[in-house]
Amino acid sequence: MRKWQIKSSRTKRIGVLLFERFSNHCLANAVEPLRAVNSLLGWQAYDWSYLSVDGAPVTSSSGLPVSVQASLGRASGGDVLMLLPSYGYRSYATPDMLRALRQAAVRFQAVAGLDMGSWLMAAAGLLEGRRATIHWDEIEDFHEAFPEVQVQRERLVMDGNRWSCGGAMTSFELAQRMIAIDHGEALRTEVAALFMQGDDGSWDEGLPRNPSNTVAVALAVMRDNQEYPLTMPQIAQQLGLKPRRMTALFQSELGTGPLQAYRRIRLQAARRLVQKTGLGVAEIALRSGYENASAMTRAYRQEFRETPQQTRRRDYNKDDF
Fold it and tell me: The domain containing residue 247 runs over which residues?
């Protein structure tokens, strides 16, 4: 059951284990959504450190050098260990590295294989009897090399505390899933919108829309109509649905109704105006679809547990995350 909002004040600690010639695209897609969460929430919900097997700097496949904070053996542990090997991944499966990986898996609550990371997890015995995926270019070899793993041709697989995904775009999806689990679908959709992912309102007219696409289109319609909000029947009509069916899809996909999602979108827009502009609260209220500043401030305080004025003061004084 997906939840719309989850209240949390706990910082999640993540180790990102990089190997030579790792995909920088994959790395950015994994950590940038977490950075966005810190910025949106105004506190450090995620704290990550870069690791390498021996503690030496590593260089991405595109030539970007990355300094690391520690070697894998000296990493103190945390909530999630992300493995990011890309090119030449088989050469990294040495006895010493696999031993260090098994030891690290004890110190981290979950281990996630990004790109070709599942191969190293399987070689270390961390996926025995587990469901897992890998970059689809290598999925047949993966299945043959590790028959004890339940290999699935999926973009993302989360089997208990063993997670896996394929290439660069699926790393973003993994980060999004983490955000939803830790903080709820409301924050996940806000981060997705920041990266213009998944809700541009377009679809192939020649193909039937699946429920996820329908909800994404509905969210895009809501974002396009914030100053003068539409009614739920009007949105449902644009989607070619009955209001009751639209509500059921929202509850299934996001764990909340369309009215609550619409309210959150408008308040997110209000918060961005508070943070990024010098507009007064009355003007921000009008631009967010509220008739007056008092109504918007009440809704804002209920949603974000602070007033617009408090947000503006906090953002003015805080360091960037």
Answer: 199-321
Q: Phi first, then psi: give them for residue 165, nearest 5 degrees.
A: -150, 170
pTM for this prediction: 0.81
Q: What is the pLDDT of residues 31-53, one digit of tens each?
A: 999 999 999 998 999 999 999 99
Tokens matching residue 193:
């919108």
Evaluate whether residue 316 is within a structural domain.
Answer: yes
In a domain, 243, yes or no: yes
Other C-beta atoms closer than 10 Å to the C-beta of 81 total: 26
Cα–Cα distances in Å, from 177 out to 94, 164, 198, 241? Answer: 31, 12, 14, 27
Sign of CA dihedral 220, 171, 3, 158: positive
pLDDT computed for residue 49 by the predictor: 97
**H/E segment holding residue 41:** helix 24-41
- Dump pLDDT digits (tens) for 286-303: 999 999 999 999 999 999
Residues 67-89: pLDDT tens digits? Answer: 999 999 999 999 999 999 999 99
Q: Alpha-carbon distance 47 to 31, whole Å?
A: 10
| DSSP, res 94 | -
Residue 32: C-alpha distances to residues 47, 77, 215 (Å): 12, 21, 24
Residues 116 and 253 in one domain: no
